[in-house]
Each structure stands twice: as structure tokens, then as C-alpha cells.
């Protein structure tokens, strides 16, 4: 007997090269009908898991206290790697950018300018608090020549690429 494929194990269907397409359909249907009982058990397990909802809420509360993650665009020009990110409501002096030849980390904190009671919000979609983002760069860059600027709440970081060493063949002259 041949080894069952992943699909055959998953559905319970059995396929053989000798079967005609009609026979394959019949075998598959019979196998699937027999496998309905485990599906019912799966649904019962799912119903039991729904009762554990308070634990999930505790995890969500814990996650909301962690750092936010910046959205970024990273692209390249012939000479540099450019990173852009919208960072509204944060002063340039409150942003910390650290980097190595192959990785950059942007950190900061967006502070609320006023305290509003939770029950007074209609919508609360803005993120307030610490944020960070680390990116592994696709190419090595010159750390000392990097530039960062902020215009209209868009942070732009320009990282000059390190020129790759080109191999040059040297001809030997005879004297």
C-alpha cells in the first residue's frame, strides 16, 4: 500500500491511480461521511473554549500596555536606503534612532496632552504611549553618514549604502 498524502490523511479520502474519476468521488464521499463524528467533537471543544473568554481578555489588557509598533516604508535608490514613517504628535527630540551597519531601531513616546475619562470617549483609535520599530536593513549602510529629518509629521531617514568592493584584475608586466 502506498504512503498516504497529507490531503488523504486530512480528509480520510483514499486515492489510487487505478480508480476512475467516478470511483474516486464515491470513495471520497464515503470517507468524508464517516469522518463527521470527529468534526462534531471539534465543535464541542470549540464551544468549551468560548467559555474561557475572560482569560483572553486578560491577555489583551496585558498586550495593550506594551509598546506600539510604527508603520514604515523602506525603499532604496541607487545610492541609499530610505525609511519613512508617520509619527504625529511627537517632537523630534523625543525620538531616539539607533543603528548598526545592518539594523536600525526607532523609539519614542507619544504623550497625551490632556486626560479624558474612558467613559467620555466615543472612539479611541489613536495610540498613546511608547512605540518602537526595529528593521533589519537589506544592505549594509554607512552609519556615520545617515541623516534624519521630520516634515509634516513624517520622519525620513536616509542611509547611504556602503559601496561593495569590486574585484579588479591586475595584469603583470614583464621587465
UniProtKB/TrEMBL annotation:
CS domain ranges (all copies): 67-175
One Pfam family of this chain: HSP20
Matches recorded under Gene3D superfamilies: 2.60.40.790
Alphabetized InterPro entries for the sequence: A-crystallin/Hsp20_dom (IPR002068), CS_dom (IPR007052), HSP20-like_chaperone (IPR008978), Small_HSP (IPR031107)
Sequence ranges assigned to domain SHSP in this UniProt record: 63-175
Renumbered residue ranges of the record's region Disordered: 1-30
PANTHER family for this protein: HEAT-SHOCK PROTEIN 20 FAMILY MEMBER
Protein family according to the UniProt entry: Belongs to the small heat shock protein (HSP20) family.
Protein name: Molecular chaperone
The organism's taxonomic lineage, starting at the top: Bacteria, Candidatus Portnoyibacteriota
Amino acid at each position: 500500500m502506498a504512503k498516504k498524502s497529507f490531503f488523504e490523511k486530512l480528509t480520510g479520502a483514499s486515492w489510487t491511480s487505478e480508480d476512475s474519476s467516478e470511483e474516486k468521488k464515491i470513495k471520497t464521499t464515503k470517507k468524508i461521511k464517516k469522518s463527521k463524528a470527529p468534526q462534531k467533537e471539534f465543535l464541542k471543544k470549540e464551544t468549551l473554549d468560548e467559555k474561557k473568554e475572560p482569560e483572553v481578555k486578560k491577555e489583551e489588557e496585558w498586550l495593550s500596555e506594551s509598546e506600539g509598533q510604527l508603520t514604515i516604508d523602506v525603499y532604496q535608490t541607487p545610492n541609499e536606503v530610505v525609511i519613512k514613517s508617520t509619527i504625529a504628535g511627537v517632537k523630534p527630540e523625543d525620538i531616539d534612532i539607533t543603528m548598526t551597519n545592518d539594523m536600525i531601531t526607532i523609539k519614542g513616546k507619544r504623550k497625551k496632552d490632556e486626560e479624558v475619562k474612558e467613559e467620555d470617549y466615543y472612539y479611541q483609535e489613536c495610540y498613546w504611549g511608547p512605540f518602537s520599530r526595529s528593521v533589519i536593513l537589506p544592505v549594509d549602510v554607512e552609519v556615520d553618514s545617515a541623516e534624519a529629518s521630520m516634515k509634516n509629521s513624517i520622519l525620513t531617514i536616509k542611509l547611504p549604502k556602503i559601496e561593495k568592493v569590486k574585484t579588479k584584475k591586475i595584469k603583470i608586466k614583464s621587465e
